């Protein structure tokens, strides 16, 4: 099959303007996320912390940090980001490794996914690793393009290092997700389909082995295949989520104490927050969310395909994939179309690490929308086989 390229068919003067539709979609996703937490978490906040708006308040505080970083990554020069890339990548790896250090790392239910910061709060390094690995791969692909060579072993080795550390944290779903998005970036940046075949032959049995050796992972898969038989154990969240979505009907139950089914979902504020949105806003609200996500993905991919800077184009595509595909994966889990993963819903799930990382990636995409073109760049190479 021949090569296909999307050329940066834009007048030069348009590069000093950001994509307003993409910015609006980001702000709407964030606003709807805050609204959903406001509607659905008062009962949980009161029960766990004695504060009905604990999760909303905490999310707003993290939002301030996120907006600052969004502005930062949307205005700094791409050359500066590339110069800072070694510090970003090594800092992300260091944070991931710090999760294993006693007294710094926080071990919950046998998983070392969090680290304490000044004894005040915790962060999840794997969320920042998503942004770091996208920048890392984009920069390597950019350099190889300039040198007119293709050597995917170095990018693959870097991807494997990140994924291996996250696996060791017992964050299996995040590791697999990062690996899959990385593979999408390889494909977009010119890797042949035949190159993926041996990788696929190794990855499938490896994933199956890692699922089978951990009882809780195997139980999740079995519960997904036979949810009715595990309705009160490992499949309880899935069944409760389905009931909440069904209870929403077409128009939804609105806000307030009418969300009876929602309050039965454990850890509602994190991975299953979309069930609350579906219950309160109904099918109409669910459709509106997916339309908004589609606009976000459309404008983001358009920015990547029309960007005149190779590094910015590759990284912007990876950032959009990270946010959009993670959103679809979370919704699939909540709706019972995929096994429970523990992957949060960007901008909706309570958690500072996920929110800040999402803002960083969106800030980078905004930057790519107004980054001037490189003289030696002719567009994003989508396929080359």
Largest sheet: 3 strands, antiparallel
List the helices and strands in order: EHHHHEEEHHHHHHHHHE
Strand order of the largest sheet: 2-3-4
Shape: globular
Uncertain regions spanning at least 5 consecutive residues: 1-9, 377-385
Radius of gyration: 21 Å
Instruction: Quickly count the helices.
Output: 13
Going by helix content, strand content and strand pairing, the class is mainly alpha
Task: Using brief descriptors, characterize the structure shown.
three-stranded antiparallel sheet; 5 strands; two-stranded antiparallel ribbon; mainly alpha; disordered C terminus; 385 residues; single chain; 13 helices; disordered N terminus
Summarize this entry quickly:
It is built from 13 helices and 5 strands.
Q: What do these coordinates show?
A:
The chain has 13 helices and five strands. Helix 3 packs parallel to helix 13, helix 10 packs across helix 11 and helix 11 packs antiparallel against helix 12. The termini are close together. It is mainly alpha-helical and 385 residues long. The strands form two sheets. The chain has a three-stranded antiparallel β-sheet, covered by helices on one side. Strands 1-5 form a two-stranded antiparallel sheet. The N terminus and C terminus are likely disordered.
